[in-house]
Amino acid sequence: MPPRRTPRIQVTGRARAGKTTLCRALSLLAAEETRPIDRPGRPNPTLDADLLLYVLPGRADAADRRLLATLPPDRTLVVLNKADAIGVRWSDAATAAEALASDLDLPVFPVVATLAAHTRSGTLTDADLNTLRRHRDDPDPPLTLSHDLFAAPDLAPDPEARRALLDRWDLHGVSCALTALRHAPELPVRLLLQILHCASGIDPLHRELHRRYEAAAIGR
Ligand SMILES: Nc1nc2c(ncn2[C@@H]2O[C@H](COP(=O)(O)OP(=O)(O)O)[C@@H](O)[C@H]2O)c(=O)[nH]1
Ligand SMILES: [Mg+2]
User: Is residue 1 part of a domain?
Assistant: First the structure.
């Protein structure tokens, strides 16, 4: 067997693109988060790892495009993060990712890193589930159109429970969970978590990253 080596992974992108959150969502303990790109007066980080994850916060700006054009296509995966903020439904994010992939000529994965980080590390508590069940049949939208609407004090006598749910699962997670519960009111927690995990889009990225990591480890 050829000797295995440990490939280096760098996670890069602009400030607040979601690099740290993505590392948590993928459990990439050994990945190196670079300093942010496109900082006035500071050179961009050197991107020379075996695998590069380029994180975009919902869209690519001119600086992203300039840098992405210089990166090695065989070592670069693009993460279209904050997919929950693109359009109004998942297909909008998927369409944006496809358009970007053909523009950049690189694979692009739409992801909601915050949700994926939660489904990886957290669980739905009984309190979360009770709050969701209480609001399962409220009209949605508008309920989950904004944090303020969902947390409105006069909606029901449980504003604190709703705020706690939002803190833990964010609007996108709450909205997905309510939709799932509306279709299947008796859904067990385990399946509900699995649905939320799928809704984060993290799995296709995880699989491709793993595939490339293994290939790099044996020096292909
Ligand atoms: N709506 C939304 N916010 C996100 C997502 N991923 C990260 N964020 C938020 O974006 C902000 C910056 O995230 P962070 O991981 O610290 O970005 P970094 O500076 O690139 O490391 C934080 O407030 C995150 O909670 C996402 O998928 N959706
Ligand atoms: Mg960070």
Answer: no
